[in-house]
Amino acid sequence: MATTVTSKGQVTIPKPVRDRLGIKPGSAVDFRMEADGRVVLLKVGRPDDNPLEKWRGSAGPGLTTDELMAMTRGEP
Questions:
Q1: Where are the beta strands (DSSP E) in 1-76?
Q2: Got the DSSP string for 29-46?
Q3: pTM higher than 0.85, yes or no?
Q4: Count of domains in the chain?
Q5: Is residue 42 within 8 Å of 29, Cβ to Cβ?
Q6: Which end of the chain is less congested by CB atoms within 10 angstroms, N or C?
């Protein structure tokens, strides 16, 4: 699929490519330069694309350092 570069260096990613990669408005993309001269377009994953990311920091405040040290030492 060919596309034209604008005077500002911009190109439109063809719809079949956007659909295949799941690129929507606001998606981040990256370009990887291959040794053979090819350029590969990659969709950049956002943290919310990671299924485990939603659990980050959800354990609550936890123990203070003093409480943790007392527990490790066996103090009441």
A1: 28-33, 39-44
A2: EEEEE-TTS-EEEEEEPP
A3: no
A4: 1
A5: yes
A6: C
